[in-house]
Write a structure and sequence with these properties.
It is a single chain. Helix 3 runs antiparallel to helix 4. The chain is about 80% helix and about 0% strand. The relative contact order is 0.19. The protein is an all-alpha fold. The protein has one domain.
């Protein structure tokens, strides 16, 4: 819900997703630096933010991006989907052992998966979206509205 509160006034889906990436990065940094006894509490917002963001992207945003995509954007979207799977696997690995017992390798795997996904979306996917004449400012604005509605209703995340 916190993501929605920060992004509810934004009118371009790309701006919303970039903002949520920054928020997730901040939450992940808190988890990475938390003392062992605080890791469980620090992990919960990370898990909620990453899963909610990925679910909303996959349900609301990606289908429209794919509908209007050329071959280059389709390939970039396929990579982004795979990266969501990597993020989920990293989250599950930490949940399985308990966030308070997460190993350095597990935390590093989550950070790496997140950083790779963020860089790919922001530097490749979003650049292609902004270049794509079919994904007009109006369409991106409508996606922002739908995305924020989904996040606000907790339909996703």
């Amino acid at each position: 819900m916190a993501n929605y509160l920060v992004t509810s006034g934004m009118t371009d889906i790309v701006d919303i997703l970039v903002t949520e990436h920054a928020q997730a990065d901040d939450l992940l940094s808190v988890f990475e630096t938390a003392a062992v006894e605080g890791r469980k509490a620090a992990f919960a917002p990370v898990r909620i933010a990453l899963r909610g963001h990925a679910a909303a992207e996959e349900a609301v945003v990606y289908p429209i991006f794919r509908r209007e995509a050329d071959t280059e954007l389709t390939t970039a979207m396929d990579t982004a989907d795979e990266q969501h799977d990597d993020l989920e696997a990293a989250l599950v690995a930490i949940e399985t052992g308990g966030a308070d017992a997460a190993t350095t390798e597990e935390v590093t795997a989550l950070r790496t998966a997140f950083d790779e996904h963020r860089a790919h979306e922001e530097n490749v996917v979003f650049a292609l979206v902004r270049k794509n004449h079919k994904l007009t400012r109006n369409i991106r604005s409508e996606l922002a509205r739908l995305y924020n509605e989904a996040r606000a209703s907790e339909m996703i995340g």
